[in-house]
Amino acid sequence: MGLSKKHQCYIAVPSHIINSLSSSHLQNMLLSGKKISPSLSLKLKLLLTNPRFWIFLLFLFGFVGMWLDFVPFLQNPCSISHELFTVNEKSIVNEKSEFWQQPDGLGYRPCLDFSKASREILNDKTKYLMVVVSGGMNQQRNQIVDAVVIARILEAALVVPIFQVNPIWADESEFSDIFDLDHFKNVLGNDVRIVSSLPSTHVMTRPVEEKRIPLHASPEWIRSHYTRKLRRDGVLLLRGLDSRLSKDLSSDLQKLRCKVAFHALRFNPSILELGNKLTERMRSKGPFLALHLRMEKDVWVRTGCLPGLSHEYDEMINNERKRRPDLLTSRSNMTYHERKLAGLCPLNALEVTRQVLYLLRKLIKALGAPKGARIYWAGGIPFGGKEALQPLTKEFPHFYNKEDLALPGELEPISKKASLMAAIDYIVCENGDVFMPSHGGNMGHAIQGHRTYAGYKKTITPNKRQMLPHFLNSSLSESEFNKIILDLHKDSLGQPELRKTGRDVTKYPVPECMCNSTTIHSSM
């Protein structure tokens, strides 16, 4: 089938090249379809003997060749010829191997049918809940979800959450810098009243501040401790909501959690637009794997693990941990080796390489995982810099992050804001054809749940606890290792998984927030 329409192509040439050519030279190059007069013929000869013309021509051919290889970063590249366009299409189709196929969602779909709506809650203008959220963007996101649910439990209006400046990243972003505030209010309009600030009737009220919320508090505990104080003072201030509200709530409150996480917390339009642009550039040559690497310095310090780059780097982490023992998250009595065998440490670059190599090149050749698979890696700069990534970049040259994909100046307005940079990573990873985190954490859990809710996009969850002993077993042949890894992950590819007691519904939205024909009939 031929091309039915003519297309115009534009090739950008640096201004200093254009300026180096006289206007007569440019005019001669653009003339076509006319009879050449003797004077014009003389000018053409002069042009052909001009070394600047040949420099320009060599530059032009080199630019076109580079353009063909760099086409993924262009929005609407023009075809040089129909034949080249056809070849490129075939190369994209060949990447549609079984590796990129999505898991069977068993008919599950979002299902947020609330049992009742309480208008009196929305009309009450006497009780207000204020919350201060802390941590990185994904921690803040989790705390906002629970803040909305707590406001509903207390039948209070929620003041837009205040973001505490993080001492590690020094990011002063506010709610509206990261999320779409108007959308947040509109989506939750029938559930909880959201206000931007306290009304004049309460602005002089000193809020009752509570800091002693236990882990996994039940709605009954919340009501018994705060309802009377809230009615008396009108304003309640809560801090440190991370994991304070129970994971096991009533059906309506679990659905509200999902509604906040998957519908209300939409990113700021400018952030969403930039994240979608980077996703389009990443996918322009076919499907891609989004890999969340957690290899920053603070991750190694907090987890009690070592990066394994060199003795010097390990000593730096040990010294930082001794200087700041408060940063160690949990199980401080365990040694590094015990933590690693228990699956509590992030995969380092060498381990990620071996697993990704298997997933992309050895996950049974019949799956057709392409050798030149494109990988987007999310996360901050690894501890150890580029050296830490060498095992990955050596095996997978098509290895990009947001800085690689962005055009000059695109990231500059947000480059010093860790939460906004994390939001860009979140958007690209959520839209990747396959997603794999090197370590769980808030972002990995949030994206897993979001991809599940969006329709069971393939998510590979590394089984570190059972996998790491095999990484350490040098006697295994490649075929034996591959078979073991395949068996360990056959049920960890994003298939429907029912939420178990104590697990977060925003990570496992089935069955509270998603249903299929079977669950619908059984509930009738």
Automatic annotation (TrEMBL):
Pfam family membership, one: O-FucT
Subcellular localization: Membrane
Pathway listed: Glycan metabolism
Keyword entries, A-Z: Carbohydrate metabolism, Fucose metabolism, Glycoprotein, Glycosyltransferase, Membrane, Signal-anchor, Transferase, Transmembrane, Transmembrane helix
Bilayer-spanning residue ranges: 53-74
Chief location bin: membrane
GO molecular function, one term: glycosyltransferase activity
A Gene Ontology biological process term: fucose metabolic process
Membrane topology: Single-pass type II membrane protein
Keyword Phosphoprotein attributed: no
Keyword Protein transport among record annotations: no
Source domain of life: Eukaryota
GO CC terms, sorted: cytoplasm; membrane
Family the entry assigns: Belongs to the glycosyltransferase GT106 family.
Designated name of the protein: O-fucosyltransferase family protein
Source taxonomy: Eukaryota, Viridiplantae, Streptophyta, Embryophyta, Tracheophyta
